[in-house]
Write a structure and sequence with these properties.
about 350 residues, 12 strands, disordered N terminus, DUF4831, DUF4831 family protein, signal
Length: about 350
């Protein structure tokens, strides 16, 4: 019922549809299901990492006691581009709106649409297409180093003395690990699981105390997404900008360096002849897309960060799935709502 309500609400488009070049179930006073074919937009996803450094409480003694060089005493934050991915995204094409007349005995009247009117299936239910999710890095939990400090360290009268005693404790932990791993400890774990538990606990203590000298560095990923029309080939279009201090910026923000995107038509199709167009107009059936292909390249500071060939509907053509296919057999068709192409045809 929901599909029919959608169809009736779209019948106001009838005058517009009649003006299209391809005649497909020419709309009139009959009720019908209106659907759109998609056109391609390029969905650009930039995964950027926000990096935050906080100096340790004893950072000025890092080289003196632990031979850790170049430890900064100043907090710092900056951004890095982790990776860039581009996907084909389907959006309704207002120039490709069609209507299927409702016929009691026609399997073509059983049409499944997306929420924005793109065709998904005829005479069946299309499976949901799950987009791959990005695995994002999140800030880690840091153990409080004070819970591993001895009483002597906590009662130290100066930061220099605290640094000296903390460094000794770190070396003691390392020595304890070495003795256990060599089997020379006075009290050895009873089995492999106990051994691993002890080693893990000593590692945790060492890392927590070492961060008093080295400081902490947190990394958190963020995803920035924009869509760019793919109506025609283009070269070195500024998609976004990037600044190591400010992160991802809009294309018109000159505080960042441009991230360029290019699109090339890799398999140009010959234009349809007038005779073929006339034959297509005489056929009745479901219009679907045969996407072309486009090479998408994303560059930043002269380096290629993404390059792949993607389906581009604007570089392809349309064809007709004739109604006769549904008359004699129980035919089921599943479409790709992102491209408008046929994914699967089944029949009994």
């Amino acid at each position: 019922m929901k599909r029919i309500v959608f169809a009736l609400s779209m019948l106001a488009c009838a005058t517009h549809i009649a003006a299209q070049d391809i005649s497909y179930y020419t709309p009139g006073s009959d009720e019908g299901i209106v659907y759109f074919l998609p056109k391609t937009a390029l969905e650009v996803n930039i995964i950027a990492t926000h990096i935050t450094y906080q100096p340790g409480e004893l950072c000025q003694y890092a080289n003196q006691y632990l031979r850790m060089n170049n430890i900064s005493s100043q907090p710092e934050t900056h951004w890095e581009i982790k990776r860039i991915e581009v996907r084909s995204a389907g959006v309704p094409d207002s120039t490709k709106a069609y209507i299927i007349k409702l016929k009691d005995k026609s399997a073509m009247s059983n049409v499944e649409l997306t929420n924005n009117g793109l065709i998904k299936a005829i005479n069946t239910t299309a499976p949901d297409i799950q987009k791959a999710e990005y695995v994002l890095e999140k800030p880690q939990h840091h153990e409080n180093p004070r819970q591993y400090m001895t009483e002597e360290i906590l009662l130290a009268g100066s930061s220099a003395k605290m640094a000296e005693l903390t460094a000794k404790e770190i070396y003691n932990i390392r020595e304890s690990k070495n003795l256990i791993l060599r089997g020379q400890a006075d009290t050895m774990p009873k089995d492999g699981a106990s051994l691993q538990l002890v080693i893990d606990n000593l590692d945790k203590q060492e890392k927590a105390l070492t961060r008093l000298f080295s400081g902490t560095t947190d990394r958190e990923d963020k995803v920035f997404t924009i869509r760019i029309p793919a109506n025609e080939p283009f070269s070195d279009k500024t998609a976004l900008r990037f600044s190591s201090l400010l992160g991802i910026l809009p294309a018109d923000d000159l505080a960042g360096t441009p991230i360029y995107i290019s699109l090339a038509n890799t398999v140009p199709l010959p234009p349809a002849t007038t005779e073929n167009e006339k034959k297509k107009k005489k056929l009745e059936g479901a219009i679907y897309n045969i996407p072309g292909k486009g090479k998408v390249t994303v560059t930043y500071e002269g380096k290629t960060l993404f390059e792949d060939e993607l389906p581009i509907t604007q570089f392809g053509t349309t064809e007709v799935l004739v109604e006769d296919l549904f008359k004699k057999v129980n035919t089921r068709v599943v479409f790709n709502p992102e491209t408008g192409s046929i994914l699967k045809i089944d029949k009994d």
